[in-house]
Structures are given as C-alpha cells and as structure tokens.
Write a structure and sequence with these properties.
N-acetyltransferase domain-containing protein, globular, transferase, 4 helices, GNAT_dom, 3-stranded antiparallel beta sheet, 7 strands, Aminopeptidase
Length: 158
Amino acid sequence: MPHAIVTTTERPDLAAVTARWRWEAFMQGQGRGLAEVMAAESVGAAGPGPMPRTCVLLADDAPVGMASLAAHDLDPRPDLTPWLAGVFVAPHARGRGHAVRPVAAVEAEAIALGIPTLWLYTRSAEGLYARIGWRTTETFPYRDRLYALMRRDLPEHV
C-alpha cells in the first residue's frame, strides 16, 4: 500500500475531510458547528502563511490520517507556540503506525520554517509521542480531564 503526505494547501479538496475529522474528534459538542469548522479549514488550506498547515497521510490515494501545525491550540497557554495539533487517524486505519507519518511531516515543516520547539497536549497518546521523541513537561487539568503538555525540541534547518 503506497503512502504519501500532502498538505491541504496542495490538495484543498481534502479540507472537507480534515474538517470533518477535526470536528468529530476534537470539537463536537464544544459549541462549534461542523459548518464553522469546515469554513475555517478551507481558509487555512487556502492561506498563504505557514500556519495553519495540515498534513494528510494518503494510503492508495485515500486520506487516512492528519496532523496540523498551528499557531495556537490551547487557550490557557497563549504563551506557547507553535503547536502540533489535530493528530488523527481514521478508525479503519488505526493500529498500523499511521499517526507517526503526519506527525513527522509537521515536524519537517516546522524545521524548514526554523521553528525550534513544538508543543502538544494529549489525554491519551503520551506514550506514542514519548516513543517518537517528545517529552512531557507537565500534566494539568483542562475541561474536567487530566492532560499531558509535551514539547519537542527540533534540530536546526540545515
């Protein structure tokens, strides 16, 4: 099964898929409707700037996962930027190591931009991120749940 990584800037037709995934996995029931998330995803896909940038993993040319580079992702921590955000693998494609590919693509985008550090927060994937080089800096309560705040110091762009 051939794999490829594309961005929604390169393939704006994928923005509807990534918006649905983002809404269903992270935003449903939090006051933002799917239409609002789709509009924001389309604007981000068309934007000329480096953020937001969504990397999509394709397997046999079908989208199976994503990860984004975002300026902000955690309201209580506006001091931290930028973020690895919205890491998602479609349920039918899980358990195959697919999350690592779009994460690596976002890290490569950040390195190319000269970004020294990326941040993320997670409730359930701390072990996965630790295995690929991220380290936990703290745990904190947010929205009545406990999360890990993690960072990744990136090598300089050569």
